[in-house]
Amino acid sequence: MENKILGLHHITAIAGEAQRNYTFYTKILGLRLVKKTVNFDDPGTYHFYYGDEIGTPGSILTFFPWEGIQKGRAGAGMATEIGYSVAKGSLPFWAKRFGEQKVKHQLVAERMGEQFLSFEDPDGLMLNLIETGTTDNRQPWETKDVPADVATKGFHSIVLTVRNSTATAKVLTDIFGYRLVAQEGNRYRFVTDAIATANIVDLVEEPNGSMGINAGGTNHHVAFRVKDDEILMAFREKVQAAGLQITEKIDRNYFYSLYFREPGGILFEIASDNPGFATDESVAELGTHLMLPPQYEKSRRQIEDVLPVIQSES
Known about the structure:
The chain has one domain: 2,3-Dihydroxybiphenyl 1,2-Dioxygenase, domain 1. 18% of the residues lie in helices and 34% in strands. The protein contains six helices and 16 strands. The protein has helices spanning 18-28, 91-100, 166-175, 229-241, 294-297, 300-306, and strands at residues 8-15, 32-39, 42-51, 60-65, 78-86, 109-111, 114-120, 126-131, 155-162, 179-184, 187-191, 200-205, 219-226, 250-251, 255-261, 267-275. An eight-stranded mixed sheet has the order 2-3-4-1-13-16-15-14. A hairpin with a 2-residue loop joins β6 and β7. The radius of gyration is 18 Å and the shape is globular. The mean pLDDT is 96.
């Protein structure tokens, strides 16, 4: 496989109440909780990973649920909308479901030639369900309430909002290998041909836009995907050669990561496919146990006493 960015790996956002977050994404949106662990930098807070059956890169939405956190504000210098791919003809199901479940949502609209349905999670995070114009053969996770023919297949796209798009676009094209394929007003669509899904970045330029406030209901960072940690380190050299500061390689147990802030202010991560989520739990058991990184295992009892209890059938 070539030394390329393979679209989106995961997206990480900030939530408030952990139980509310878990219930929304597993019961209403129908995702699988593939890993329940803690924030490696703040073990008194959960880190939830939602995705398909095995947490395939390109399907993984993660959250830091900080109880009582103030509400943030989406704006410039931030990833502002998350797009999920769904099958054609599925949006009426979701509009009906959101109405029944009292989920805040908009009418179905069209953008870049695709039908989409915008909605918000309980913390105000902005998401879209998009009937993609290309074939998406990914196998979705299904539940008794969300059957496979309408379920989310994984990411379609991410929207990045910046005051000036030039330098951010240069990172996407010159370092990550994306290309500009379309424009609607102040929205520029970039796509990578290295993979067929989770491969779209929409760059929205708002010169006078208010800067985002990173707190509850906003995205923390966007992770782009590479095959393994050898390719990861090749991209570290590329980022450094572009004059940007980037971290050393960090072991996140389920993938290896690098972090850097692109010129528009958005925190980017590059993450590897290896080793995956079934390293400390079987595929059948994914998300059913609290999995701690080795450095916190000796403090398991104290950590469990602090974390809120999650009722899986709520």
